[in-house]
Every structure is written in structure tokens, then in C-alpha cells.
Amino acid sequence: MSIEDNKALVKRFWTAFSASKFDDALAMLSEDATWWVAGKTMVSGTYTKPKFAELVGGIASQAPEGLTVTPTLLTAEGECVAMEAESYGKFANGRVYNNFYHFLIKIRDGKIYSVREYLDTEHVTAVFGP
């Protein structure tokens, strides 16, 4: 795939995710995909595709109106797409989740196979924590 194809795949993934079309988004991940979340929060760590699907389901249940992730900058080289983004969602606990990210996304054979997610861990704790 070309660099532009890779960037387009990343945009499609986040469009589907933001529309709560999680099955469509997850279909864009390879079966051996891993998703790593920075920090030491309750959502930090490395996820396989099935475990990431569980995480997404848990977050979706907490954000009944959905969680929008908006790419603000995409840069690509080879199989890698670097993306800055902002999220927004109103949570059932009354809190607003509005985080800022950097993702390093790797693509192979038209599928996302690796994601490294860097985010404001203090905000995760403030919104998801007790």
C-alpha cells in the first residue's frame, strides 16, 4: 500500500470508531494486531485484538453518546502512520473525557497490526478512576 493508502486506512478506522461502528473498526486490525497504551493507568498495557475489543466495549458502555477521536495531524513514512488526535465523550458518570494523543500505527497488507498510544494518563485516571 502507498503512504496515502495507509493514511486513508487510519482515517477510516477512526471514522468508524467515532461512529461507534466498532465491528467495522476492528475489522481493519489484523488478527495478530497489538495495541499498547502508555502509562500505569487502569487501561495501560498491551492488548491483543480480542482484548482490545473488550476494552473498547467497556469504554463504549461508559460513553452512551459515543467517544469521538478526531485526527489533527497525520504523518506517514513506509508502513508507519504517526497521528496526533483529540477525543471527546460524555461519560455516564457525568465526567467528560477530552484527551490528547499521539499514535504510532503500523500497517501490513492493508491492515493495522500495531498501535502505540501515548496520552494524558492523569486525565485517564481522573475520568475512569473512583
Please describe what this structure looks like.
By secondary structure, this protein is α+β, with helices and mostly antiparallel strands. 33% of the residues lie in helices and 42% in strands. It has a single domain, classed as Nuclear Transport Factor 2, Chain: A. The chain is globular. The N and C termini lie far apart (44 Å). The mean pLDDT is 95.
SSE order and pairing:
Blueprint (H helix, E strand, L loop, with lengths): L2 H16 L3 H5 L2 E9 L7 E4 H14 L5 E10 L2 E11 L5 E2 L2 E9 L2 E9 L1 H8 L2
Parallel strand pairs: 1-7
Antiparallel strand pairs: 1-2, 3-4, 4-5, 4-6, 6-7
Computed structural class: alpha+beta
- At CATH's second level, what is the architecture? Roll
CATH topology: Nuclear Transport Factor 2, Chain: A
State the domain count: 1
Could you state the order of secondary-structure elements as H and E?
HHEEHEEEEEH
Q: Categorize the overall geometry.
A: globular
Work out the number of β strands: 7
Biggest sheet descriptor: 7 strands, mixed
Q: Strand portion, in percent?
A: 35-45%
Helix content: 25-40%
Average per-residue pLDDT, rounded, comes to 95
Provide keyphrases for this structure.
alpha+beta, Nuclear Transport Factor 2, Chain: A, 33% helix, 42% strand
Short description:
The chain has 130 residues and is α+β, with helices and mostly antiparallel strands.
